[in-house]
Amino acid sequence: MKWTFLFLLSGSVFAQDFSNIQIERAAAGLAFTEGPVWSRENYLIFSDIPNDKLMKLIPGEGKAAVRENSNGATGNTFDAQGRLYTCESRTRRVVRQDKKGRVEILAERWEGKRFNAPNDIVVRHDGEIYFTDPAFGYQQDTRELDFYGVFHIGRKGELAIVAKPKGRPNGIALSPNGRILYVTNSDEHNIRAYDLDKNGEPSNERIVIAGIEGVPDGMRVDEKGNLYVAASGIAIYTPEGKLLANLPMGETPSNCAFGDPDFQALYITARRSVYRIRMPIKGSVQY
Q1: Cα–Cα distances in angstroms (integers) from residue 172 to residues 13, 120, 148, 162, in the given order
Q2: pLDDT tens digits for 34-48?
C-alpha cells in the first residue's frame, strides 16, 4: 500500500523535486521495529524487539526471521567485510556475526561493570566502531554503571569512552567522510557532533541541532551530509543544523536507513511496520 504526501522544504538542496513523495508500507504485523540496515547483498536487516527476533526483508518477497532469541537486538550495522554488528539490550553487549553465522562478543563491560543496554551502533569504513549505551524503562532498574555512555571500540579491540552525557544518547551516525560522529540525545532533544581523527579519536564536542520536535531516536546521513532523524516524524537537517523538511508518519518512527541497490530508498522502522520511501538523493554508505 502506498500513500502520497506533499512536503515543503525550507531551502533548495536537492537537485530533484522533493514533493509528491510516496510512502510504502514494506512490512507489517510486527511488534516494535528498530535497527534497520541495508546489506550489500540487497536485503534489509531490522529488529523486532518484543518478539526477540532479527528480521530480514527482501523487497518484493517479504520478511522472515534470521535470528530467533536475538537477546533483545536493537541497533544493527554492517562493516566493509559484510559482517553484522548488533546491540543486544537484554544481554547488555555488542556482538559481531560473520558470514558463516559465527557470533563474537566485542564488548559487554566497562571497568568490570555491565553496560546499561547498548542501543545503536555504527562502523567506520576503516573498522572503528561506535555505539550508544542508554537505559530505558525497566533497564534503569538493573543498571551497574552510574552514567549513560557513548563508546568507541578501536580496530585492535580497545574500548574507550567518547562521552558521558547527562541525557540518554540514542541514535548514532557518521558523516560521509567518516570524520564527524553524530549522536542523538533523547532527553535533551538535540544532536551532538564529535570530530574524529584518523585513529577514530573524538574531539570538539558540540551541539549541532537543538530543540528537535518529538523524541530523537535513530538517524542516517545522505551523500550530501544531511541528517535524517527519527523523532515525531523523519526530520531532515543540513550538516549545519538547518531544518529542511519533516516527513510525517502514520506511526512514530524509531530509526531509518538508506537502501535498495542504488541506495536511494529510505527504509523507516516505525512501531509495528517498516516503511519505504524512494528519495531524490542517495544515502551515505557508512561501512
Answers
A1: 23, 6, 14, 12
A2: 999 999 999 999 999
